[in-house]
Amino acid sequence: MLKIYTQIERGQAWLNKYQGSLPIFSCVLGFTETCLIPGISAAGLTPEDRKYTACADAEFLYYGATHEAVYPLPPLTAGASPVLISRAVVAELKIPVYLFNAGLNITPAVPYIDLGGKPARCVSSGAAMEISTVKHLLDQGLSWGSQLSEKITDGYLILSECVVGGTTTALAVLTGLGINANNKVNSSHPICNHAQKWDVVNSGLGKFPRFTDPLELVAAVGDPMQVVVAGMAIAASRRCGVLLAGGTQMLAVYALLQAIANTYSLTWQPEAVVVGTTRWVAEDATGATVELARHLSTSKMNWVTEIPPLLATQLSFTNSRYPQLRAYEQGFVKEGVGAGAACIAASVSQNWQQAQLLTAIEFQIRQLMNSLPH
Predict the structure, then answer these.
(1) Is-above-0.70 flag for pTM?
(2) What CATH code is assigned to 2-371?
(3) Over the stretch 164-204, which tens digit does the pLDDT of each residue have?
(4) Per-residue H/E/C for the chain
(5) Position 374 pLDDT exceeds 70
């Protein structure tokens, strides 16, 4: 059920070490006005829907379908939210969930930890966040990474995200770090909108000759989740395993955490950190995820040198009875809210196979459909 695409020996060593261990699941929620650009994302049918996606996903992850949602899951172009996958695993395996508000546009209706961040302006502005906010969020990330790792005796920490428009901010940060990421990122669309993303990123990065500090880069073109998860991963890696849950967005975080650690002389343990996603991301024909992971070592800046082990669940929805799930096989949605990492955790911790995963996920979608007004 698992495949390692890069750094195979390190990836296998990580899997061996945490075989049978249950993780803590954290999800860092953020908002960037980039997601309001028409057509930029399929994580919500309209720009108005996308304002609520993170809060809706957080609510479903925490409570499931039987809870009367303040923010129901928004309609998508096709498919179903990846939070169904994450919820299936955390509910079945009783994995503890921590939700962090790094900078949302609205207050989520779940128990959450407020990190005191703010929503980001559009990448094209070149002024996404104040540098003081970015520095504050890094401190919060370092602090919470340390606190969560202390709760783990022999397991690992899943660091997931929900930021609509986040693959565009990821492209911006990767490019700003001197990594050739154009035409390599993924998106929630079946065919990635590379040209649109690149135009937005160029507008923002074009306002700067070059960056001398990675935090300045995040302030210019990033989103609030990125610096929080980078800080959490740096601190947690010193004590436990870290599974960065996502594709393009977590490759950007992996590059960013190296840049921050090198610039600010922060120690971290590379062998503790892996990136985990879905097969739909790793093998997306309209992106180049594996190539992008390998490209991290070719950064034009000496801040980034490490290539992460990239793992992916081999979960398939080809034989699902639900068209919303089969849409994943056509390239819709692909990943989000730590869906791939949750499946990896089920395989690592409990040796779940395809049938068990599919049964648990289909149970969630059935509950959701039964809860909707008829």
Answers:
(1) yes
(2) 3.40.50.10210
(3) 999 999 999 999 999 999 999 999 999 999 999 999 999 99
(4) CEEEEECHHHHHHHHHHHCCCCCEEEEEEECEHHHHCCCCCCCCCCHHHHCCHHHHHHHHHHHCCCCCCCCCCCCCCCCCCCHHHHHHHHHHHCCCEEEEEEECCCCCCCCCEECCCCCECCHHHCCCCCHHHHHHHHHHHHHHHHHHHHCCCCCEEEEEEECCCHHHHHHHHHHHCCCCCCCCCCCCCCCCCHHHHHHHHHHHHCCCCCCCCHHHHHHHHCCHHHHHHHHHHHHHCCCCEEEEECCHHHHHHHHHHHHHHHHHCCCCCHHHEEEEEEHHHHCCCCCCHHHHHHHHHHCCCCCCCCCCCEEEECCCCCCCCCHHHHHHHHCCCCCCCCHHHHHHHHHHHHCCCHHHHHHHHHHHHHHHHHHCCC
(5) no
